[in-house]
Specification:
By secondary structure, the chain is mainly alpha-helical. The protein is about 45% helix and about 5% strand.
């Protein structure tokens, strides 16, 4: 996740416990030596009492991190918050809504979304992160400034519980305006979309082709991190330097060369969701345009990004497929772009132990990728509640309820086992060890409360 990248690169504190609360199979000793088997059995049992304790603790942590009021510089109304810093984060907020929807009477959910709507520019731009004074952290001129477009997703999750059409009527013009900005700004001539890895939230997954160096121009994330580490400056000064320098890195200058399956699928999903909202509130004149753009994106993804031999979608670079499998490919499910005759093959990767079917399933990067790390290494192997929830919701949309339940139960079991050892929830989890990921922030209900609340209610119980 993007600000965690700041934490690592800027030398700020990450709250991570020692390795004593972690184990693999019994013949393995250290993190550096271990190569756990993904099917290594566990005799740990999740009891109803433990599930109840997890649920209540997740809700308790979420309530404790509600903010907004007279002590705030800008945000004066209470709202749920990921509580990573004093800034607010868009895709964290949207995923928090997906579990907070069950407690609308206890949690200030609407205002968390309204904080972003209130900041919208005249052209429809909404930044993915705002400072505590209400100003955008990132420049609109660079795609690092946008997140996955999940506001309509969040609103429909609320609507599934509240059935509040007046809320949808209120936010629809804002959602439509933002959608039009994203289409106008990031859709390319082939109908696919470009974006930035950091903006899309999967910080340290390399999206550009191996060996690409922009003719020697641009530094790597590692080089930028070394530069920041040598600075005799405060954390805020390092952060500001990172913001200024990031567009000059290899990843920062790559973007327009690439076409991203996740962002393209998310935009197809957004078109479909706006169509649904338009139908619910009776804005029939908009429906055809959403159908048209969804179909265009779907055709482009299947034409350019599908690999018949590997049975998966790949990002593009310079018109060629970049053969790296990451969990972002499965936004195609919620985007409703996968043809029926490709569905079974596409889903087969999710339970393949050499790919995404690890001990804790659905790591951010496939296990057969050379950059995969079984202990996590953030998005180079970590299991993240938001992307796991995305896969589960996508499977449900596609009628794959049985597969969704199997994956949900395995994920829930691992999170429960770590909870039993640490008595809290973590920013991400290791795919191959029964452990939090490394690095990972503790007491994170942020989006990790999805597992003990939303995943439990929707897929496990």
């Amino acid at each position: 996740m993007q600000r965690r990248e700041f934490t690592k690169k800027l030398g700020l504190t990450v709250s991570v416990m020692g390795i004593s609360g972690m184990y693999a199979c019994k013949d393995e000793t250290t993190v550096s030596e271990t190569k756990p088997k993904p099917d290594c059995p566990s005799d740990f049992k999740v009891t109803p009492e433990l599930s109840e304790r997890m649920y209540n603790r997740a809700l308790e942590i979420t309530k404790s991190k509600v903010r907004g009021g007279d002590t705030e510089l800008f945000f004066k109304k209470p709202f749920i918050d990921a509580a990573f810093s004093q800034n607010i984060f868009l895709w964290d907020t949207c995923f928090m809504v997906c579990f907070a929807k069950y407690h609308l009477d206890e949690l200030p959910v609407y205002q968390a979304l309204d904080n972003f709507y209130d900041r919208i520019d005249n052209d429809g731009y909404i930044c993915r992160e705002y400072r505590q004074d209400g100003s955008p952290l990132w420049s609109k001129e660079h795609p690092v400034s946008i997140n996955p477009p999940l506001l309509a997703f969040a609103e429909l999750e609320i609507y599934s519980i509240s059935q509040d059409k007046e809320r949808l009527k209120k936010v629809y013009p804002i959602l439509k305006k933002n959608f039009e900005f994203l289409v106008r700004t990031y859709q390319m001539e082939d109908d696919l979309f470009y974006a930035d890895t950091l903006g899309m939230g999967m910080d340290n997954i390399q999206r550009y082709p191996k060996g690409w160096n922009n003719d020697g121009n641009g530094m790597t994330h590692h080089e930028l991190g070394e530069k920041l580490g040598k600075m005799d400056a405060t954390g805020e000064e390092r952060l500001n330097t990172f913001i200024a320098e990031y567009p000059k890195t290899l990843q920062g200058v790559w973007n327009k060369q690439g076409r991203l399956v996740d962002f393209s699928s998310q935009m197809a999903m957004l078109a479909d969701q706006l169509k649904t909202i338009a139908e619910v509130i009776g804005v029939s004149e908009d429906i055809a345009s959403y159908t048209e753009i969804h179909d265009k994106i779907s055709r482009a993804i299947n034409k350019f990004c599908w690999n018949e031999e590997d049975s998966i979608y790949y990002d593009l670079g310079f018109g060629k497929q970049i053969k790296r499998k990451h969990i972002g490919m499965y936004w195609a499910l919620l985007g409703k772009v996968v043809p029926e005759d490709r569905m079974e093959r596409f889903l087969s990767h999710l339970e393949n132990p050499e790919e995404f079917g690890r001990r804790t399933p659905l790591p951010a990067l496939s296990a057969d990728d050379p950059d995969y790390r079984g202990w996590g290494d953030y998005w180079r192997g970590g299991v993240w509640a938001p992307t796991s929830y995305m896969v589960l919701k996508g499977l449900k949309v596609c009628g794959q309820d049985t597969l969704a339940k199997r994956l949900a139960q395995k994920t829930y079991q691992s999170v429960a086992e770590v909870f039993a050892m640490t008595h809290t929830f973590w920013e991400n989890y290791s795919p191959d060890l029964i452990s939090y990921g490394m690095p990972a922030k503790k007491d994170f209900c942020g989006w990790t409360a999805l597992i003990p609340i939303a995943v439990y209610k929707e897929f496990v119980s």
